[in-house]
């Protein structure tokens, strides 16, 4: 099977439609599928539900799709650096499902493993538990969380071979791996594609069976989510 496509638009052809659910990899601005996000923006699909650790920042990452008003609902754990997200949420223009970070990762992993739901102590007794089933195990309360399945997963990898066996680099591994398995179809963008057999099998983070389509997105500009500098000391 030929998995490598010439660009993001070609890799997403026939996969996008209004009202779909997308799992998007990335941690802050690290390991986000930039080229695929741009292609989704350019395709103009609307009413999207997106599960992602974060919503990018204003004008970067998933913030691009918020700015164009293509997102109906976000399932996220951290959204603190996106003013447009805040504005839309407070104005009632964006539906938001806040989810503890570890629970979100497990919901996507569970969905990819065919597990429809699981019980966790995280969120018991808080607003997170609102409307969810509570069950007692060994005298402790747990809440039921549903696994997440998406129409499409978009992820960013570091290096892949031609069969889609993929390696993530450092922090980018945090959410890209579970998001990839939660999508009915996974499209990956990577920095480099090498011949089959070039990668150490023990170093593979995501087997190629999960990756249906792939592009090379390099080169990338390294972006900083929140720049903090100290004041210059007096001479």
TrEMBL record:
GO terms for molecular function: CoA-transferase activity. It comes from the Bacteria. SMART domains: CoA_trans (SM00882). InterPro entries: 3-oxoacid_CoA-transf_A, CoA_trans_fam_I, NagB/RpiA_transferase-like. The keyword Transferase applies. SUPFAM superfamilies: NagB/RpiA/CoA transferase-like. Keywords: Transferase. PANTHER family: ACETATE COA-TRANSFERASE SUBUNIT ALPHA, KETOACID-COENZYME A TRANSFERASE. This is CoA transferase subunit A. It comes from Sphingomonas baiyangensis. The lineage of its organism: Bacteria, Pseudomonadati, Pseudomonadota, Alphaproteobacteria, Sphingomonadales.
């Amino acid at each position: 099977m030929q998995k490598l496509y010439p660009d993001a638009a070609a890799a997403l052809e026939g996969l996008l439609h209004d009202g779909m659910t997308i799992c998007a990899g990335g941690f802050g601005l690290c390991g986000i599928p930039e080229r695929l996000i741009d292609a989704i923006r350019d395709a103009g699909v609307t009413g999207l539900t997106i599960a992602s650790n974060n919503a990018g920042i204003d004008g970067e990452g998933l913030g691009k799709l918020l700015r164009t008003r293509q997102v109906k609902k976000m399932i996220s754990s951290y959204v603190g650096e996106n003013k447009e997200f805040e504005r839309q949420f407070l104005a009632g223009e964006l539906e938001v499902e806040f989810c503890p970070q570890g629970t979100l990762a497990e919901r996507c992993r569970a969905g990819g493993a065919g597990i429809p739901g699981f019980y966790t102590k995280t969120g018991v007794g808080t607003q997170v538990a609102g409307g969810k089933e509570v069950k007692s195990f060994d005298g402790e309360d747990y809440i039921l969380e549903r696994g997440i399945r998406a129409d499409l997963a978009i992820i960013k990898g570091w290096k892949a071979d031609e069969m889609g066996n993929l390696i993530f680099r450092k922090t980018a591994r945090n959410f890209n791996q579970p998001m990839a398995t939660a999508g009915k179809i996974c499209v990956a963008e990577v920095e480099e594609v090498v011949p089959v057999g070039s990668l150490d099998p023990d170093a593979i983070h995501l087997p190629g069976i999960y990756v249906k389509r792939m592009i090379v997105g390099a080169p990338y500009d390294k972006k900083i989510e929140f720049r903090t500098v100290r004041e210059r000391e007096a001479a």
